[in-house]
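Dear support,

We are seeing what looks like truncated structure output for some complexes. This example has two components. We would appreciate it if you could run it in full and send us the complete token output so we can diff it against ours.
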Amino acid sequence: MLEVVSQTTLATLGVALIVSFIRLVKGPTLPDRVVAMDLIGVLVVGLIVVLAGQSGVQATLDAAIVIALVGFLGTIAYATYVERGDPQ
Amino acid sequence: MTDIVTAVVWLAGSAFALLAAVGVLRMPDVFTRMQASTKASTLGLACLLIGSALQMADFASFIRAASIGGFVLLTTPVSGLVIARAAYFADVPLWEGTVLDERQRDSARAARGGSSAQDNRNGHVDERSRG
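Here is the complete output from our reference environment:
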């Protein structure tokens, strides 16, 4: 039963990734795209966490930690860029 | 028993993540999109983490899942605030149905030469906009 449930969960997360990718492509302004990238980072962390629970390999959770950290730093960097503009 | 709880929590978490993505696609404005993505994705990720920690049933992986959850819970509001600030000051247009822009109201009042007590509808005087 858990096999079917984990496949369903992964498929739903994949659909969520596709939907937020549509916003990343469409997004009229740069902050829209930053929000979509932030959401994609969180969704990838969730995907990796489900894969870790499915396979039972602990090192996968370390990868999820790294992606969460890098996603936060990237969001902060993009926000500074949007607020200050291109430093020339 | 553990499998049932894991199944319920995983399905709920992925449903919340999908809701966050649909909210980001469908909402009319950067700021409304942001509130959909931050709140719903935090809840979804927390549910997925609980399911995985139950499934692995191991102290080390429990600690890792808890640290991911705590980190995301701490950083998602911060990044939301920073993006919202940047978008507001970059003059991203608000949705035309927006009813209240408190920052614009306060700065317009400060430009008029400070606020009076009658000006404030709530009855309390805003100390910041007097200076």
